[in-house]
Here is the input.
Amino acid sequence: MKVCFLYNHDAGHQVAHSIGIASALAQHHRDIRTVVAYGSPEIRAEIVKHLTPEQNALLEWLDLSLPRWVNAVLHPINRLLPARRLLRLYAGSRKLRQFDMIVSTERTCLSLKRHWRGDGPVFVFVPHGAGDRNVSYHPAMRDFDLMLLSGQKVVDQMVAHDIAPASRCRIIGYPKFDILKGRKPDKFFDNDRAVFLYNPHFDPVLSSWYDHGPAILDWFAAHPEYNLIFAPHVMLFFKSLHISPEYKQGRRRPDLKPEWNDCANIIIDTGSERLFDMSYTLAADAYIGDVSSQIYEFLYRPRAAFFIDVHTGRDPSADEPAYEMWQIGPVVPSAQDLFDLVPHWEKFAAEYRDKQQRLLAYTADANDPRPASLRGAEVIADYLAGPSAYGGRG
Here is the structure.
């Protein structure tokens, strides 16, 4: 049996969600050939960071990267749609079709399954996060044959939206949390003032950055009694023009002001691995965001959380929140409303603690003492031994 773990994104933020499963499968099921397929040398470098030398030696590698001149030609198109991802898939189609199973953290790979008309590998989905937006249960995901999900919340989402029956879902916990075991928070400032993490999404309709982000950084620049880490979704500064995949609307991203870099109480990071290795979500005292699923990584240790709603138009005091994550902290319509709450962050941390713990337990199952990566590897091995017990193919 041959299993391919596919890493075909342009950025490395999805790697940690499934590479632990790949290494656990290679270590504990040596009768299964575990192959890692990567889309660029940069992605391979990110993958290797998560592996011990022993794990690295047990894995096989498949390079799907495109020639440099092809990447250059596709660069302007890639700003509007995932042209590189799609071309890598079709260029590597013959090699990928030889696998018994392809494990992916995104749905682009399903274009191959449709191209092959179902006559090919089993496709397994490991979400890169556990968020509450529509993209978390996109209709295209129905084509996955098996889903390895973090908790009952995600199973309920898939079933409620007719994406997959419960028989094709398996709860394994949140694999990315495995790398936090025994890890202590980093200290990013040389003082003991409260550290706020601002983590806006990249979607131009849903993100708070476009209309409120610069005001937030201006406010913290004028209030050195607080520290701020500006760590947006890694794709926000990947390009300057963003088109919402959900709403088909585009906007140009506001740029950074040079003077923010001179503020001793502000750290700006728009591209390092710390944006997705949980360094910042582990270290901060409070979270400011909008719709990013990184809030669930922040909740690994419950703390104060604030959300800016720029798109629903709902009255947060009168309506049910649009997203389950918005139950675990104040939701405000603007940066100015946020500034009134910041001084009371400790009060909100205590007020919402119980709700945060309940939502995290619902989202990321921790009832099994085994690491989530090992749980995922066991499900894959069981499926390969007897797929009929998993509700059939999608």
Observations:
- DSSP finds 14 helices and 15 strands in the chain.
- The longest helix spans residues 345-363.
- The CA atoms of residues 93 and 112 lie 7 Å apart.
- The two ends are 20 Å apart (CA to CA).
